[in-house]
Amino acid sequence: MSIATPEIDGRIDAQKRNLDALLQRFTDQHPDVVNARRMIKELEEIKRKEVQELRKIAMANPTSAGGNSLAFQDLSRMVATSEVQVASLRARVAEFENRLNRARVAMKTAPQIEAEFAQLNRDYEINKKNYNDLVSRRESATMSGQLENVTGVADFRLIDPPRASTKPVAPNRLLLLPLALLAGLAAGIGLTFVLSQLRAVFYDAQTMSETLGVPLLGVVSLVMDKGQTQRRKDELKRFAAATGALVAVFGAGMLALFLMTRQAG
């Protein structure tokens, strides 16, 4: 007697296709492959039990004399189909109950596993810190022993760590700034002297006559009016003010540099 179980057969085919896809990516020892094979074996066992039950039912209820009618045959097929569906649903209920039980067990053990995991992490961090401290001490002891073996007489100890000095080594700015001022003044005076030599200026008639080698017939004196005299005085005042400002700024800079150097020292 051939008895069909389409629902379980469909589930077995789906699991087999899933197993083929998993074997293309993983080995036989992979947890997903092992789980898929276990599911196929369980479904085949459920199918075997259902087929046996359906055969027992069919043998216990043989077809009667009036069973040759079409109505009786349709009712028999409907009853058989319903029994198959009931058996399939019972199998699914049993499977889901097993899954529920496993999930409940996992829910009970999950907090404990998390607590153990957190404790392991804490222990690992503590052990790691202690290990690093011990390694640092061992390196320090090794370096100290090497120094003692090399010197044999002197005892070297590192008291203060090396650091860069906050005071500049060179140049000496307190000496450099006055020299720079003198160099600037000397450059200005030298430039003025060179320009005076390029564009000669005579201050008396005798020098002019001797230099040019021509007789001098007469001299015209420069007579300045009040406006020119005032402009000349203003130019002298501005020159004196600029000179005083230069000296004041230089003195303030020297004082500030001296104070900064003193604080840094």
Task: Work out the count of structural domains.
Answer: 3
Helix-strand pattern = HHHHHH
Q: Span between N and C termini?
A: 110 Å
Q: What Rg, in angstroms, do the CA atoms define?
A: 57 Å
Question: Helicity level, as a percent range?
Answer: over 70%
Largest sheet: none
Tally of DSSP β-strands: 0
* Strand residues, percent: under 5%
Number of helices: 6
Spans with pLDDT under 50 lasting ≥5 residues? 64-68
Q: Pairing-aware structural class of the strands and helices?
A: mainly alpha
Mean pLDDT: 78
Shape call: elongated
Structural overview:
This protein is mainly α and 265 residues long. The protein has 3 domains: 6-142, no CATH class; 182-217; 232-265. 77% of the residues lie in helices and 0% in strands. Helix 2 (31-60) packs antiparallel against helix 3. The longest helix is centred in the middle third of the chain and has 82 residues, at 70-151.
Could you name the key traits of this structure?
265 residues, mainly alpha, 6 helices, elongated
List the helices and strands and how they pair.
Blueprint: H1 6-25, H2 31-60, H3 70-151, H4 173-198, H5 205-212, H6 226-264
Helix pairs in contact: 1-2, 2-3, 4-6
Structure at a glance:
This protein has 6 helices and no strands. With 265 residues, it is mainly alpha-helical.
